[in-house]
Amino acid sequence: MNPSIRVLMVEDDILVADVIRHELKKVGMMVVGEAYDGLEAVRLTATLRPDVVLMDIRMPAMDGLEAAARIQAECPTPVVLLTAYDDPTLVATASLAGVGAYLLKPPEAREIERAVIVARARFADLQRLRQLNEDLAAYDRSVSHDLRNVLGFLLMSSELLMEIGPELSADDFALLVQQMNGTAQRGLNVIDSLLSLSQPDDLTLTPLDMNRIVDDVCTMLRLLNQEQAPRITRTTELPPAIGHVGLVERVWDNLITNAIKYSPPPAQIELGGELQRDGTARYWVCDHGDGISPDVQPHLFDPFYRQGGSSMRGHGLGLALVKRIVTQLGGAVGVESSGKPGEGAVFYFTLPRA
Questions:
Q1: 3-class state of residue 103 by DSSP
Q2: Which of 152, 82, 76 is nearest to 111 (CA)?
């Protein structure tokens, strides 16, 4: 029995609809709505949010294939196509429209049950693939930015060595080489984290020295923002957590970069962390900018969301990427702000404690 499966039935033949309704009842599925053409099917899918749509193919106004494609574009939902003909060409076309399974009329209860299971499983697989593609696209933008910074610093440092290397003291020379080595390692971490994000099932999680990760990120950001001269202060020792070095570096980089960007110069940024009773470690980044109004805060982690339009404070893909990474690592993200100028905002995330 399937008492939790809510079905939208789309069939313009009243007699066939009666048969399907009766067969659905046999396997415990609940009809939450009925439509008689493709346009109504698209509208009711968005309104009722069913678990699956049983869709006739030949209907007035808009046929089942076009309606299925519209549903996947506007309100992605598993779709089972109903047809009177077993046509391989139709099956291929239906798959391209986002149909997960198809049934020959008149369907029996067990056939409907199997088709619904198949359609929902295929839909879940497609959603995971779509999410992975979105993650990779977002991360690609972040990686491109980070690698450009890494290569830019290495190029500038190598040119400096060629020009005045012999004039540098032993200590200055050693410091510059150490910074170049650390920057190169950061570039490798960026590439490694991209590869890890592309294979989430193979992601290796290890205990993290969060103090070292933050120090490395802050060193790079200070070098890249020398004109602004941000003051980045770690107010507490950061507890260790379980995660992935490269991915967690991206989280800190995005949060601290945003804090610098939206603080009056010279930016004063505080970082901290503490263990929680629920078995997680909580970390935060605090700025002293204009703050974020409470009605905006729930949307800050949405991709490309911008407060009040493109001219106002916005975080593009940065915070959306932070949320995706932290969620994948088993944690959560959030923001706290009164919305009053000068009181700033606190962005935080949690990870499983080490």
A1: strand
A2: 82
For 6-130, CATH number out of 3.40.50.2300, 3.40.50.1820, 3.100.10.10, 3.40.190.10 equals: 3.40.50.2300
Residue with tokens 């050693």: 174
Mean pLDDT by 10 residues, the chain (354 residues): 80 86 88 90 92 87 86 90 75 75 84 88 82 66 69 83 85 82 73 62 85 89 74 93 90 89 87 94 93 84 54 52 88 90 90 94
Domain boundaries, the chain: 6-130, 204-354
First and final C-alpha spacing in the chain: 43
In CATH terms, the fold of domain 204-354 is: Heat Shock Protein 90 (3.30.565)
Task: Please state, in angstroms and rounded to a whole number, the distance separating the CA atoms of residues 288 and 263.
Answer: 6
Question: What is the maximal distance between C-alpha atoms in the chain?
Answer: 92
The two three-digit tokens of residue 138, written as one number: 């977002």
